[in-house]
Amino acid sequence: MNLVRNEGPAMSCEPPQKKQRQDDGAKGTSAGRTLAVLGLGNPGRTYERHSLGARVAAAVAEASAVAVESTNKDLEGAVWLGCGELKKDWALILQPQRPINENGPQLHSALSDLNLQDAPFLTIVDDCWLPLGTIRFREKGSSGGHKGLEGIEASFKCGQNYHRLRLGIGGKNLKEFVTGSFTEEEESLLQPVLAAAVMAVQAWLRLGPEASQKAGVDASCSLGKVSRTKRCPVSSCIVGHVG
């Protein structure tokens, strides 16, 4: 799949290290601030519906070659990605290393290990209540019964006040469905959805949480024939809905 690369000026500073205290992570420092992105899912189960968020995070991470230095298993596979309009910020891109119900504790453990407990974060999550192909950005809200999001709420003081990118998978809220794999037909239809989701995450990292929240993402990506298209302000791409 051809994805949009996060091109831009080279980074002029080193990524945060474990022993480098980041008490003001949410406000930033003279060298920029650190953001975090976690793609929810089950480790080693790439193509199941419940791991769609992890697939998007992995695609975003392809633009980076800076591995996180840590012995913490919760940071396994994590990378640093330069971001921000002036490339002064860093994004920590995380892959699930625990079952999806424990993705929240994993995120908390990873950020704590790097002294980034207050860093703003974005979660990328599957949503069975949205039609396949829908991408919806929210700056806060309930878990909708998603155990992974419930784990986030229980692990952080912010509760439900954190950003999430919800990716519709359709179907029903049944374990057999969400832990099942996409059909061959669904996989082919997912390609533009994945590409648009990657662009939305890149835009969140480039603009920052505050500007992204103001702009918002609430639209459906194209699956085949597109109608009622509109421009998505955060991902800066044309999206629409099957019709």
TrEMBL record:
Protein name: Peptidyl-tRNA hydrolase
One Pfam family named in its UniProt record: Pept_tRNA_hydro
Native source organism of the sequence: Durusdinium trenchii
Gene3D superfamilies reported in the protein's UniProt record: Peptidyl-tRNA hydrolase (3.40.50.1470)
Keyword field: Hydrolase, RNA-binding, tRNA-binding
Taxonomy, superkingdom: Eukaryota
NCBIfam families, A to Z: pth (TIGR00447)
InterPro entries: Pept_tRNA_hydro (IPR001328), Pept_tRNA_hydro_sf (IPR036416)
Region (Disordered): 1-30
Biased composition (Basic and acidic residues): 16-26
